[in-house]
Amino acid sequence: MFDYLFSPIKINKLEIKNRIAYPALGLMYSLDSKLNDKYYNFFKERAKGGAGIITVGPVGVDYLGSGFAILSLANDDAIPSFKKLTDIIRGEGASPWIQLFHAGAYTHPILINGEDPIAPSPVYSSYSKATPKEMSIEQIAEVQNAFADTAKRAVEAGFDGVEIIASAGYLVTQFLSPLKNKREDQYGGSFENRARFPKELFTLVRKNLGKDFPLTVRMAGNDFVTGSNTDAETPEIAQLYEQSGVDAINVTGGWHESKVPQLPMDLPRSGYAYLAYNIKKVVSVPVFASNRISCPDMAEKILRDGAADLVNLGRVLIADPDWPKKAQQGKSDEIRPCVACSQGCTDQVFSGMPVFCIGNPQVGLEEERKIIKTSSPKKIMIIGAGVAGLEAAVTATEIGHSVTVYEKDSKIGGQIWIAGAPPHKYELLEFARYYKAMIKKHKIKVVLNSTVNIETIKTDNPDCIILAQGAKPVTPPIKGIDEPNVISSWEVLKKDPLLGQNVAIIGGGSVGLETAAFVAAKGTITPEILHFLFQYNAEPVERLKELIFKGTSKLTVFEMLPKAGKDVGKSTKWILFSNLRRYGVRIHTSTKVVSIKNGAITYEKDSKSITEKYDTIITALGSESVNNLQKEIEILDIPHISAGDCITPGKLNNAIHGGYLAAMEIDKLTKK
């Protein structure tokens, strides 16, 4: 089925068992630059899952380039701990690789105890919020030698291959970029001069590795930063790398400071595969494709189309390390999805916190949350088939219990259908696909259209109950809130009703803003229609832009706080707000809605009272827990536990992780 994906390939003289690579991704599992059990357990699971290459990294080559939060192999003392890791990875059947790292101007001063980072030129970095010191000729040589020396240690530590990071806006790309490299010596100015640093670096590394040891580079296919290198220049850079001794080229998107999304679900699946092909057509070494390659069919198509020779599955293998095995066994539906939310991975790293996954409760806790089969199977009733209830059902079944799920609606998923309604959030619906597959796999009994009451519980007579009834939207105490043209955001996202031309949304948190994005997109043209009109030059480009971003409703959002989107993730907030601006959505902050009368909203802002007329008014002011069976179950004296929003409304990870942990408590609850 996946003839290309699971075929072997050689990089230099090393044969890799398949075309799947786990790339280097920051995990933040230590703040002392050292490996620990969390790293060992994490990488063991990824290697066990069937990937051909497992890349450890980023791994710093010196202190100023990485600081205390990045793993380091900058001295010989670290070799034994990395040797232990390579043995673990190789022992599980994967090839261990390492990515060598230097951030240059991207090193935040906090990570290096307040020192100034170093870079080709003293150009302010909007990413690190610092102006680096210009590297002297001596410092350039020191850094190049640090890479070469660390590469030698990597061989001693048992790695099969070494990758140099030259992407995302880090040091190597800073030398190559005319935007960041303003030097007037032999390392600046012309392309030949700007390319001198990486050319010398790779030559030194190759000398320390020997001619037969695999050496690769992770490069930007397009910096996506105005004034820097585009995909018109990057093929020449790739050719330089090949000429400098690189055995394969790992192509990703752009820089961290790019205003083009690199990772979130706004980026279409495999959206940057074209960048890999742009490099592949000018080099003779294997090329990796990266970014948002989510499903096996897509990975196979990239290889079959000749766009790349290998595929990177980064966050995808965080979400489900068994992705390769499941794909090879024809069980793609059972792959736990990566929905590209960035909440547990990118947002965590940017906040200096350890990586987890909203959809996989075991990530970063592989040993602590390992499923152990029960010696005392129980009959379990789960009330609610939202993600909390579904995760509890799957986990409890895997532990060995007999589970029945009751759901009041006609389908499983609960609020996932609401959360996945906005045009850029469709990936969230993959959770419904996953849980359907797991229900089928485990033969879990699900009773739909069933409102559970005390008689249902008595009839079922379970040994334990997991309450996962979820939440409902809050009705705010605003005069006139019950008028006929006022509806909740939940109703809008779930039923997609006809709305008026002039629409107001009360509430500027994540739900209100996502609802605004959903409503603003109503009436705009689809990507397929855009492709058709563009293909036949049917409309000028400016008209096409208007058709993309001008829908059938004008939107105004009212938020009481000084800033909207307080609960939106760090790495995705700027994307959401930029999209809302493109759609022309007005956002009033520090604004209190006082009343609604005949479609007119009266609100207070800057000590003024203003009244405006709207055709439709949408409320998005939060939710409240539903847990109406708790007291009755307590009277029956049945062991029980609650999970998800029925405890307190939270984010998706609170529901999924809560369901998992509730199932893990069953044995303890039912122990006599």
Task: Present the secondary structure layout.
Elements lengths: L8 E3 L2 E3 L3 E3 L14 H12 L4 E8 L10 E2 L6 H13 L3 E7 L16 E2 L13 E2 L2 H20 L4 E6 L4 H6 L14 H4 L1 H14 L5 E6 L13 H10 L4 E5 L20 H8 L6 E3 L6 H9 L5 E3 L2 H5 L3 H6 L17 H5 L28 E5 L3 H13 L2 E5 L9 H4 L10 H13 L2 E3 L6 H7 L3 E4 L3 E3 L12 E3 H7 L6 E5 L3 H12 L5 H9 L5 H9 L4 E5 L11 H13 L3 E3 L2 E7 L2 E6 L2 E6 L2 E4 L3 E3 L4 H7 L3 E3 L9 H13 L1 H5 L2
Helix pairs in contact: 1-2, 3-6, 13-15, 13-23, 18-21
CATH architecture of the largest domain: Alpha-Beta Barrel
The percentage helix is 25-40%
Strands, count: 28
Instruction: Write the CATH fold name of the largest domain.
Output: TIM Barrel
Residue stretches low in confidence (pLDDT < 50, at least 5 long) are none
Number of domains: 3
The N- and C-terminal alpha carbons lie at a distance of 50 Å
Let me know the CATH homologous superfamily of the largest domain: Aldolase class I
Oligomer category: single chain
Q: What's the gyration radius in Å? A: 27 Å
CATH class of the largest domain: Alpha Beta
Biggest β-sheet: strands ordered side by side in the sheet: 3-4-6-9-10-11-12-13
